[in-house]
Amino acid sequence: MQKRANYSFGKELKVEFNNSKRIELINTMIIELPVLRARIGASQADISERIGVSRQTYNAIENSKKKMSWTVFLALFAVFSSDERTLKMLDSIDIFKEGVAKEL
């Protein structure tokens, strides 16, 4: 049996993801990180500061040397979905349309 994550955003929105969906979303984010970061002209240090991790940790995540936690994924999604330059890109990636972007 897969565990399900249950997230509440405000009073009206409740988001649930099973572990396989989480892994799929995280893996897609890792692949897209360099392009997303470049679109907003941010360095790894800039992004790491915005999401509250060290630059070394962010670098290891972006280079697939460290696993991305769900919390880091949500922080990155919040950063990139709050910027017009990257929101359009996120909207064009099917998994984000089917998963997080539709729910958040």
Residue share in helix: 55-70%
* Strands ordered across the widest β-sheet: 1-2
Number of strands: 2
Number of helices: 7
Instruction: From the alpha carbons, calculate the radius of gyration and give it in angstroms.
Output: 13 Å
Q: Element order, helices and strands?
A: EEHHHHHHH
Q: What gross morphology would you assign?
A: globular
Low-confidence stretches: 1-14
Helix/sheet category: mainly alpha
Mean pLDDT: 83
- Distance from N terminus to C terminus (CA atoms, Å) equals 26 Å
Strand proportion: 5-15%
Quick recap:
With 104 residues, the protein is mainly alpha-helical. The chain is built from seven helices and two strands.
Structure characterization notes:
The chain has 104 residues and is mainly α. 64% of the residues lie in helices and 12% in strands. It has seven helices and two strands. It has a two-stranded antiparallel sheet with strand order 1-2. It starts with a strand and ends with a helix. The model is unreliable at 1-14 (pLDDT under 50).
